[in-house]
Amino acid sequence: MGINFGILTNGIKWLLFKTFENNPIERIIWEIDIVNDNIDTVEISLNSFSYSNIDVLESLIKKSKALENAWKNLALSIDSITEIISQKLSDKIKSLEPGLKIDISDVNKFTKSKIFEIFDIIENQIDDNSQKEIIDAESEYSDIKDSILGRHQKNKIREKVSVVFPDNTFIKYNKVVETFIETIKKIGPEKIQPLKIYRAGVPIVSDTKDDFYNQQQIGRFWIMVNTSTRQKVAILKEINNKLKLNLTIDTFINT
Fold first, then answer.
1. Distances in Å between the alpha carbon of 35 and those of 11, 92, 147, 236?
2. pLDDT of 247 above 50
């Protein structure tokens, strides 16, 4: 009695919950997986019940919900994010070049292309095994992150994928995206398209090219590749299950 919050964990997955909420769903404040979730999300979540913050946990939760709700209202889609940045860009142009007239549609197209470049760079950095350290060494919990989370994050960046077909065709490339594309090519995009598998609202296999997301062409089909390694593995496993292909899909770490 009198304990407002509780924590459940197996060491990898952590769940923070309110003890006395009547509705079980409303009890869960957040749930994280320190192996698979974004390192910043993990840090923020675990830091919320650190010794220095435990007395203000209720306030931190309210702030977190306020940020989350504001973000959902502000950036519900790629188009809304583009619109926000485009407006800022347009205002900047007006301040720098007062006499210059640029149609807002041109600003939107330019902004979308730049956002696309950022996503493309991130995807390539992941698949090219970037060794850049992305953990803030100045963090209050740097020792913990370096010894546990940091090592995992570095390993995660080096994660590769291999696919073995029942006919012993073995697909494994240095870049995960190449393994992904070759596997889809081997299966046949025409077999995958009717499955209606989507990511970010875009079909994994489509007859038409998307204006925003990164795709690669196989014959008349466009393959959505603007996804993380983890998502690509999940997509391949979903295809495997739905088509009953009996593929062996493995991830491994280059050392």
1. 10, 41, 13, 21
2. yes
